[in-house]
Amino acid sequence: MKRFLTPGLTALFGLSILLSLFTSCGKETSFEVLIPNSSVAAQGTLKDESGSCMPVKVYGTWHNGITPRDTNYIEVQVNVTQPGYYNLTTSTLNGITFASDSGVFVKKGLHTVTLKPSGRFTSPALSVFSISFDTTTCEFAIPVSDSTGTGLGARATGSVKDKSGNCIPTTFTGTFYSGIELTDTVYAETYIDVFTPGEYDIITPTVNGIHFAGSGFFKTAGPQKVRLYAFGTPAVPGNFEFAKAYDSSACPFIVDVKDGTGVTPPVSEFSWQFKADGKVYSGNFPQGAQIHTQNTGGTQSTTAILNGESTDTEDFTMTISNSIDANMATTYQSSAASKKFGFLSFSVATNMYVSSPFGNFSIVVASFDTVKKVMSGTFSGKIVDAVGKQIDLTEGKFKCKLP
């Protein structure tokens, strides 16, 4: 996926397009549209006006030897003085590192950034991490409790065979094609006969360029369904044997890879599509939406940035920002004065298009489900190119993962 840097249209923060339009009275009106760009690093500080480090909020209970859950994370305050891209990481200590998703600060001011852990603490001890942004560095501490005797972190025991000793069947969703990269719509499902609950990880060896993997937590004993996602690109067509193993048990399963010659790669479940200038454009979201929360002067605003890709367009970016309330399932207008602001940009060859800044472009978020972690909706209205030509965009729709 290429970034939309058209010749002669560069600015410190993204692209700056100067469009000159004429009103019905013949008066020329100029306006400037700023498009966030991931080529310029954001600037700012982790410290307040007195020079003291702003507090880092630590969420969840932490134990050594225990893989962190979704409830384990930290929040860092960043005072942004120059918008741009960011990617915050901490030092590695006691087996753990914290990192944020890569993103873009679209406004100056105070931002809250969530960092998630990777790894697991090795020792029960107070762990002091350092984190840096721009030229500032601060520290924060996490108390790590001893997991001994808690029963936490235990690995589940079980078998891929039923109680009669027969291999439990494996079923498949999606089609495997040679030469076509697998998406999250292709996976295998099977059952594990769980003896004792706990964490599990299942991964197969790589055969013909692909492997299967899944992980999670078994809460109860007995037969439990597991989903194993397929990763990679099948090299050649044919039937290939994989081994699924758990605990001390193992069983084979066969994957039928069909000839991918002439087959159009499938679009991911998390995708976008629209029609403009007589052509239908479509693509997918290889990563989930980036969610940013900003608190300025006691007013909180939430911004979601969706970065898509396809073979038709060099770039596709949708941005929505709600500075009124916490309800993200609402309608966003492209007018810069709107407190529920929506923005779209995409490029085709050397031409770039953006949603009209006069408010006659809207993005309707029909669902923003933080439980299922999915957002979806529609978009339509006027778009303009770099010379100010207006085009109707219709039948826009999207579906994207939430973090």
**Helix content estimate:** under 10%
Major pleated sheet: 16 strands, antiparallel
Structural class: mainly beta
Q: How many beta-strand runs?
A: 31
Whole-angstrom Rg: 25 Å
Distance linking N and C termini: 21 Å
- Low-pLDDT residue intervals, each spanning 5 or more residues: 1-38
Output mean pLDDT.
Answer: 82
In total, the number of domains comes to 3
Quaternary state of this entry equals single chain
Beta-strand content: over 45%
The total of helices stands at 0
Describe the protein's architecture and organization.
- By secondary structure, the protein is mainly β.
- Helix content is 0%, strand content 54%.
- It is built from no helices and 31 strands.
- The relative contact order is 0.12.
Which features does this protein show?
about 400 residues, mainly beta, Immunoglobulin-like, 16-stranded antiparallel sheet, six-stranded antiparallel sheet, 31 strands, about 0% helix, flat, disordered N terminus
Task: Write the SSE topology.
Elements: E1 15-22, E2 28-35, E3 43-45, E4 57-59, E5 73-82, E6 84-86, E7 96-99, E8 103-105, E9 109-119, E10 126-133, E11 136-143, E12 157-159, E13 171-173, E14 176-177, E15 187-196, E16 198-203, E17 210-218, E18 222-232, E19 238-246, E20 249-258, E21 271-276, E22 279-284, E23 290-296, E24 299-308, E25 315-322, E26 331-333, E27 340-348, E28 351-355, E29 361-369, E30 374-385, E31 390-401
Parallel strand pairs: 14-20
Antiparallel strand pairs: 1-2, 3-5, 4-5, 5-9, 6-8, 7-9, 9-23, 10-11, 12-15, 13-15, 15-18, 16-17, 17-18, 19-20, 21-22, 21-31, 23-24, 24-25, 25-27, 26-29, 27-28, 28-30, 29-30, 30-31
